[in-house]
Each structure stands twice: as C-alpha cells, then as structure tokens.
Amino acid sequence: MKGNKILRDHFNTVKYSENHLKLLHEKRERSKILLDMFAKEGLNPFIYGSIARGDVHNDSDIDIVIVQSIAPYQIEILLDKNGFNNYFREIIMATPADALKLYIYLNELESITIPLSKFEKRSKEFYDFGGKINLEQLDNNIRVPGIDKRLVLIQPITDGHEESSIIGNEHLAAKKLNISIDLINERKKVLLKREKFGKTGVFLKRPIEMNESTEDVLKKLANKKSIVRKKLIQR
Q: Looking at the domain assignment, is residue 3 inside a domain?
C-alpha cells in the first residue's frame, strides 16, 4: 500500500501492470454489483476515490456515496433485502460547518455514505475532489481525475495515470476537477495538518447500536446539540 506522505514538486507517470489491471477490474466489478443494487431503486449512487481514478491497491476501499436526500431506513431495508444484515452504522459530522452524514460499513473495505442534512455545494465537491463516477461510467470503463491523500492529482491515461503535486498548482487542479479553489485549499489544509499532527478528530461521531434506529439517534442528538437541531431543520 502506498503511503499518505504529502508530496511536493512531484511528477510521475505510472504504467499499470497486468496484476494492477486485474485488481482494478475485480474492484470495479464488485462496485458495479453494489451500485446496481441502489440504481434499481431509482437512486443515483457514486463510487469515489481510487476505484474511480484507477490507482487502486489491495486494500482500496469501495466507497459509495448517495448525494440525494433519502430516509436512512429505506437504505437499511434495501440492505436487509439483499442479505446485508451485519453492518455497522455511525453518524458523523466532520466539522460544525459540514453536513451530518450516515456511514454504513458493510465490511472493512465497503461503505456507504448518505446525507442526513442538506448537502451544500462544498459537501458535494468533496467527492469530486477525490474523483467520483456513477454506474454508467463504470459500465463504460471510464476513469476520472481526482486528488489522493498525498495531495497528488491523478490523471488517467490509456495504460496508467500521471501524477502531479497540487501544491503550488491549486488553481490548475481546481479547474481540472471543476471544483472551487476554496475546497482545494480546505482539503490541503486538513491533509497538511494530518501529516504534521497525525490523525485528526471529528466534531461529532455517534455509533448506532443494532437495536437503535438512525432516526431515534438523530432525535437524541438534536435534543442535546443545537447545531444538530439546526442542520435537521434546514434539510
């Protein structure tokens, strides 16, 4: 697995080996199965991160996000119907300015994120920062550019990808990904801080027990925290 050390003045061209292409194919085929499960219900799920870009490794997560508003119980019913009955859930709010999100972990490498409060433009751009694709793009074997945790822009080419540090090239990266320079600078600040101080905490994290419903936990959080109450009113 490659490290997450921030790279500066970095440029490299990576050509994919047969083993890499085989691994990418396997992870994308698994991703198709999961996305199709949601797409059949009229949702528009995305895969984001290295699977969308192509720079996968053995431990690459299959991260799914549904950016449209949907009741959590509908997702949970769908998962139960498809044989997923041992998943773990938690509510996370990374910062006071961030959206409330429900994370559902199917296993160590597969997760689903859905919004519990309104997804503002910045929240949606977060997934474009790392690169995201939908089921149709997966079916058409499309890879997209995105930025990894080393602050390196991954740009797919026919037989691999090109890598270039975004430090000093923030405006070019924002233009390439069609996202705001503010989001680029915000993510850069977070990742540089993480490099300096180690893993940083989140503003709110609340695991959900198997015998609890997401809605009940949200109500409890709203009763205790005015900021949660405000987010839920705005959705």
A: no
Calculate ∠ Cα 185-100-55, nearest 5°: 50
Tokens of 169: 């090239």
Q: Structurally, how many domains does the chain consist of?
A: 1
Q: Is residue 2 part of a domain?
A: no
Question: 31-89 pLDDT, tens per residue?
Answer: 999 999 999 999 999 999 999 999 999 999 999 999 998 999 999 999 999 999 899 99
Residue 124 lies in a domain: yes
Strands laid side by side in the 204-208 sheet: 132-134, 46-48, 62-65, 110-115, 101-107, 88-93, 204-208
pLDDT band at 233, cuts 50/70/90?
confident
Q: And the tokens for 163?
A: 């890598």
52 and 133 in contact (C-beta within 8 Å)? yes
CA 51, CA 131: separation in Å to the nearest integer? 9
